[in-house]
Amino acid sequence: MREILPDTAREVSGRLEIGGLPAGELADRYGTPLVVLDRATFEARARAYGKALGADHVFYAGKALCCVAICELLAELGLGLDVCTGGELETATAAGFPTENIVFHGNNKSSAELQQAKDFAVGRIVVDSLDELDRIEAIGATSDLLLRVTPGVEAHTHEFVQTGQEDSKFGFGLEGGVAMDALKRALQLKACNVVGIHVHIGSQIFEMSAFDLAVKRLATFLARARDELDFTAAELNLGGGLGIAHNEDEMTPDPVGSWDRIRAAVEREFKANGLEVPELFAEPGRSIVGSAAVTLYRVGTIKKIPGVRTYVSVDGGMSDNIRPALYGARYEAFLAERMDAPKGPRVTLSGKHCESGDVLIHDVHLPADTAVGDLVCIPATGAYTFSMASNYNRVPRPAVVMVWNGEAIEIVERETDYDLLRLDRRLDGSSLT
Q1: 85 inside domain
Q2: How confident is the model over 400-422, as pLDDT tens digits?
Q3: Domain end call among 271, 289, 307
C-alpha cells in the first residue's frame, strides 16, 4: 500500500494521516466524498521531472487536475502548463500563471479559443488539423507552433487513452504524406514560427518500447522534412503518458530513468539520420498528481446477497471517479481509521448512483466487520477523477483540500444544492434564485 499512498501518509495507531493530519479529522471538517491532495508529494514528483528535463522543459498536463491553486503552485515550482480548452486557459490566467510558459492543445480549438491564446500571448500552440491552421491564419495568431504528429504507435494501454496510432482524432499521420503536407502548410504562415514537433502516444504507459518506436519514426520523418522543406525541429515534445500504480500489482516508472532512456533514443535516432538533436520537452500530468491524492468516502449501506456477493456502498461513486466505469481502472481501498484491521472476504465497493455500472472496485478485501459510517480511503486518485467529475443524479461535486505540514487548505469548495440550481430557469425563463 505504501507505493500508492502519498509520501507523507503514515499509520498512527491504526489511523491514516496525510500531511500531518488525520484523515478522519479532514472528513469530519470538510465532509465526504473528499479529495485530499498532499502538496509534498506533488512537489516531489514535479521536481523529479525537473531533474530529468529541467523545470522549464516540463509542462504539467492541466487536464489531470486543474484549478487556480494548482496553477499557482506550478508557477512557484517553475514548471510550464499544458492546457487544452479556453476554460483551462482562463483558470491559468486567473492564477496569474505566466502565459509564455503555456502550451495550448486540443483537436478542435475554436476561433474564440485561438483568439484567447493570441490575446493572452500563449507561448506555444500545438497544431492539430488543417482547419486549425486556417483559423490560426485568419486571426493572425503569433504564438510559436508545434505540429502534432501521430507516429502510428499503439501504446500498450486502454484503447480509450491511446493517441499515437494512425486511426486517431489527434494530429497528422505519417502515412500518405499527411504530416509532411501539414508541415509545409504551417511553414507558410507569416505571423507564426514552427519550432518543432509534438507527439503523445497515450496515457498510463508502463512499456517504454513504445517511445523507442515513436522516436525512430519521428527521426525518419524529420530527416525527410529537412531534405524536402529545409525544416529543422528545434523542439521535440513527446507529451506525457508515464503510468502510475493504482494498486499493489503495479509499479510506478521512475521519471528520471524513463526520460534518460527516451533522451538516449532521441540522440541515437536523430544522430543516425544526420539531424541536430532537438530540445526535449514533456507534458506529465498523472505521474505528478496521481499518487499525490486520495479520496475519502463514508460507508452508507451494506447489502449482503447470500452466495453471490456483498455490496458496500459509499457516498460518492462515478460522479467523482468515472475511471472504473469508463476505462475499467482498478484501485485499492482500505478503512482509513482501522488500517490495522484484518482483511476480510472480497466485497464490491459501489457508489450511490442509479446505475449498475457505478462500481468503484469490483473486488476488494475490506475488514469483515466493515460497518455503516466507516471511512473508506481510495489512494492514487489525484488524476482524472475530480477533473472528470460530473453532477450525475444532481450530486454536487466534492471538495478538494491540500494538506501541508499539519495544515489544510480547501483549494476547491464543495458544490452545494444552490450551485446545482443556480443556472436553472423556470418555464417562463425566470431564475430560481
Answers
A1: yes
A2: 999 999 999 999 999 999 999 99
A3: 289
Q: Are 91 and 67 in contact (CB under 8 A)?
A: yes
Label residues 216-247 b or e (16+ Cβ within 10 Å = b): bbbbbbbbbbbeeeebebebbbbbbbbbbbbb
How long a stretch of residues is the chain? 433
From the candidates 66, 67, 354, 377, which is the catalytic residue? 354
Does 354 qualify as catalytic in the annotation? yes
Q: How confident is the model at residue 159 (pLDDT cuts 50, 70, 90)?
A: very low
Quick: pLDDT tens for 100-154: 999 999 999 999 999 999 999 999 999 999 999 999 999 999 999 999 999 887 6
Are both 15 and 79 inside the same structural domain? no
Query: Does a structural domain hold residue 428?
Result: no
Pairing outcome for strands 80-83 and 59-61 = parallel
393-424: string of b/e by CB count within 10 Å (b at 16+)?
Answer: eebbbbbbbbbbeeebeebbebbeeeeeeeee
The boundaries of the domain holding residue 334 are 2-37+290-421
Residue from 259, 381, 267, 370 nearest 316 by CA: 381
Residues 236 and 99 in one domain: yes
Instruction: Determine, yes or no, domain membership for 429.
Output: no
Residue 211 resides in a domain:
yes
pTM above 0.70, yes or no: yes
CA distance 78 to 56: 6
Do residue 344 and residue 250 come from a single domain? no
Q: Are residues 132 and 167 in the same domain?
A: yes
Assess contact for 351 and 360: CB atoms under 8 A: yes
